[in-house]
Design goal:
The protein is an alpha/beta fold. The chain has two domains: 6-128 and 320-356, Alpha-Beta Complex (Quinone Oxidoreductase, Chain A, domain 1), CATH 3.90.180.10; 131-287, Rossmann fold. It has helices spanning 45-49, 122-125, 129-140, 161-164, 178-190, 204-210, 222-233, 252-258, 299-315, 333-341, and strands at residues 6-12, 20-25, 33-42, 63-64, 68-76, 88-92, 105-109, 113-115, 170-173, 195-199, 214-217, 241-244, 264-267, 285-287, 323-325, 349-352. The strands form three sheets. Strands 3, 5, 6, 7, 8, 15 and 16 form a seven-stranded mixed sheet that branches. Strands 11-10-9-12-13-14 form a six-stranded parallel sheet, sandwiched between helices. A three-stranded antiparallel sheet has the order 2-1-4, with no helix packed on it. Helix 3 (129-140) crosses helix 5 and helix 7 (222-233) packs parallel to helix 8. The longest helix has 17 residues, at 299-315. The model has no long low-confidence stretch (mean pLDDT 96). The structure holds NADP nicotinamide-adenine-dinucleotide phosphate. Residues 44-46, 130-131, 134, 173-174, 176-179, 198-200, 203, 218, 245-246, 248, 250-251, 268-269, 289-291, 340, 345-347 line the site of NADP nicotinamide-adenine-dinucleotide phosphate.
Length: 358
């Protein structure tokens, strides 16, 4: 256990103020939880959006953001036998002060954590959880079917899903994003082919190394993208699945138009497809996932995912994002978030080392 009772955290004291480093208490793990010394935390768009778009969902002040990390178990709560002090784990955080990852210590439920294999560094591990959960929940969480947050397809690790997707095309918009990189790898795991994505072309070789078979320039017009898709899928099955990992007003319409009748689309932001793009009776489905283990209906599914994560990371089925380490520990995070908001990152996960905070 930590020998001190306080720690450094990146705190938002009140709405309208800025994130700043402050001292707060270290939390105690409850039953089924461990206390983790956070080695590396990933930055996500939600962390800057909490100051604007999502400020209404701030649970209390002082508020601490941070939604994914890796760290070392320093204390084990009651009823924990799967993890021990010294284990290095990967996990999602956030949605409460105890679980936020922009601090030096946080509490983690063991069912939503995985040990990090030796071929993956703690920095790399900190890039995995948020993007992977979002990709998987949108496609395969059968418990979320009724509320439009998942396509609820049989997962590739189920008997039905093991062969269902082989040779089926998929279109993934924004393959270079963190969610997009995971969606490509999940599509490869499922056996989809071709796996067609959009990105800046300087990322093409990297995305092909993850499993994309074709990378289209994301700056092509919608009509040009649709024409390319037809040439890539015409001889095979109709395009019945798309994952929009960007889901801005400029990407959702082409994602929707790309689908054949009855096709299915995941959008990572709320649906904004104009009515004029839709054809009555086209049978298309659009879902907007909440890609976090804390989301309604995600707990059991999240536990299934984290139970598989060590194996996927060790075998390279899921490769972490490339990382850029921010300087100055937690104090470096606001500058990183500003770069993300200004769209000045490309195919990289910004991470911070909370223990390096002065
Ligand atoms: N629903 C959920 O639970 C959930 C969970 C996580 C994230 N999200 C949302 O998902 C979105 C992506 O998050 P992220 O962390 O994956 O983002 P990210 O890694 O920061 O995304 C950066 C990448 O986006 C790509 N990009 C930007 N505009 C694009 C466009 N018009 N077409 C194709 N690619 C484009 C860029 O690709 P190039 O470098 O190739 O240009 C860049 O590399 C955010 O809006 C985030 O809030 C939602």
């Amino acid at each position: 256990m930590s020998s001190t009772v306080t720690q450094k955290a990146l705190v938002l004291p009140a709405l309208g103020e800025h994130y700043a480093v402050a001292d707060i208490s270290i939390h105690a793990p409850g039953p089924g939880e461990v206390l983790v010394k956070i080695e590396s935390t990933g930055l996500n768009p939600i962390d800057w959006k909490m100051l604007t778009t999502y400020s209404a969902s701030i649970y209390s002040f002082p508020f601490v953001a941070g939604h994914e990390a890796s760290g070392t178990v320093v204390e084990v709560g009651p009823q924990v036998d799967s993890l021990a002090v010294g284990d290095i784990i990967v996990f999602q955080g956030g949605f409460s002060l105890r679980r936020a990852t922009f601090q030096q210590y946080c509490v983690v439920p063991v069912v939503h954590a995985a040990k990090v294999p030796s071929n993956v560094s703690p920095d790399e591990a900190a890039t995995v959880a948020e993007g992977l959960m979002t990709a998987l929940v949108g496609l395969y969480n059968t418990t979320a079917e009724l509320n439009g947050k998942s396509l609820s397809l049989p997962p590739p690790w189920s008997p039905e899903g093991a062969t269902k997707y082989i040779g089926q095309p998929v279109f993934i918009l924004g393959g270079a994003s963190s969610v997009g990189q995971n969606a490509i790898q999940v599509a490869k795991l499922a056996g989809h082919s071709p796996i067609i994505t959009t990105a800046s072309l300087h990322n093409a070789a990297f995305l092909q190394s993850l499993g994309a078979t074709h990378v289209l320039d994301r700056r092509l017009s919608d009509d040009a993208i649709l024409a390319e898709l037809r040439t890539l899928t015409d001889s095979g099955a109709p395009l019945s699945l798309a994952y929009d990992a960007i889901a801005l007003p400029e990407t959702q319409p082409v994602a929707y138009r790309a689908l054949a009748e009855g096709g299915r689309l995941v959008v990572v932001l709320p649906e904004q497809i104009p009515q004029e793009v839709k054809t009555p009776g086209d049978g298309k489905t659009v879902v907007f996932p909440f890609g976090h283990v804390c989301g309604p209906g995600n707990s059991e599914f999240g536990a299934e995912v984290f139970a598989r994560l060590f194996d996927w990371l060790e075998k390279g089925v899921i490769k972490p994002n490339k990382v850029e380490i921010l300087p100055n520990g937690l104090a470096g995070i606001p500058g990183g978030l500003a770069r993300m908001e200004a769209n000045k990152t490309s195919a990289v996960k910004l991470i911070a080392h909370p223990q390096e905070t002065l």
